[in-house]
Amino acid sequence: MTSTFPDITISTERLVLRAFEEADIPELVEMMNDELCAAWTSVPTPYTEADGRDWVLRRAPAERLSGRGLVLAVTELLTQRLVGSVHLHHVDHRTGAAEIGYAVAPWARGEGYAAEAVLAAARWLFGDQKFERLELRTAAANTASQQVALKVGCLSEGVLRNAAIVRSRTEDGGWTDLRTDVIVWGLLPEDLEETGDPTNPLPPEHGGTPRPL
C-alpha cells in the first residue's frame, strides 16, 4: 500500500499553507513568470495559463495521491493572496526523509515568508508525520535561498559539482542554460531546537495552535 500525506492546512502567525485551488491560477502564472522564479526553477518559460492549470488541477494533487510528495500554496493570512509555494518531493516514507523546494512571489519578497513557510512545513513533517530528515538544495549562486536554509536551522552537508542547470538571461533577452554546483543542506528534528519547539507544528484542525515562526 502506498503511503500518502493527508490533505492538510498549516497556519502560522502570517501565513496559511494549503492545497492549491483553481482561483490561484492567475497569481501562480504571474509568480512563475517572474525572472527569479524562471532562473532558479525548472518551470516552462514562458509559464502559460495552461501550465498553471495543469499544475493546480492535475500534477499537484497527483503528488499527494501517488505518495510522491506534497504541494502547498502559501497565502497571506490577512489578504489570502498567493505569496509562494512549497513542495515536498523525493519523499521516502520508509526512511522518513524528504526534500523541500519553494518559490516566493516577487510582490512578497523581503518579508521572511520563505523561511516561515519552510519552517512550518518542517515542524509539521517532523511532528505530525514523524519524519527524521528534510533536505534542501540550493544553486551555488542562489544566495537568497541559502539564507533561507541558514535561517531555518539547516546545516550545509556538502557540494554536488555540476549537479543542476539554471537559466540566465542572454543579451538578446532570451534564456540560456548554465551548469551549476549545488549545495546540499540537511535539517533534522533536533536542529529546530534553536528555532522553536518542533513538537507543536499542527494546524488547528489537527489539534495544534497557530504559532509565530
UniProtKB/TrEMBL annotation:
GO CC, sorted alphabetically, is: cytoplasm
Question: Which of UniProt's keywords are assigned here?
Answer: Transferase
> Domain of life, per the record?
Bacteria
PANTHER family (UniProt xref)? ACETYLTRANSFERASE, RIBOSOMAL-PROTEIN-SERINE ACETYLTRANSFERASE
Source species: Streptomyces calidiresistens
Gene3D superfamilies on file: 3.40.630.30
Q: Which SUPFAM superfamilies match?
A: Acyl-CoA N-acyltransferases (Nat)
InterPro entries (UniProt xref): Acyl_CoA_acyltransferase, GNAT_dom, Ribosomal_N-acetyltransferase
Instruction: Write down what this protein is called.
Output: GNAT family N-acetyltransferase
The cross-references to Pfam families, in alphabetical order and at most eight, read: Acetyltransf_3
Any one Gene Ontology MF annotation carried by this entry is: protein-N-terminal-alanine acetyltransferase activity
Q: Where is this region: Disordered?
A: 193-213
Q: Does the keyword Transcription regulation apply?
A: no
Domain named N-acetyltransferase: residues: 15-172
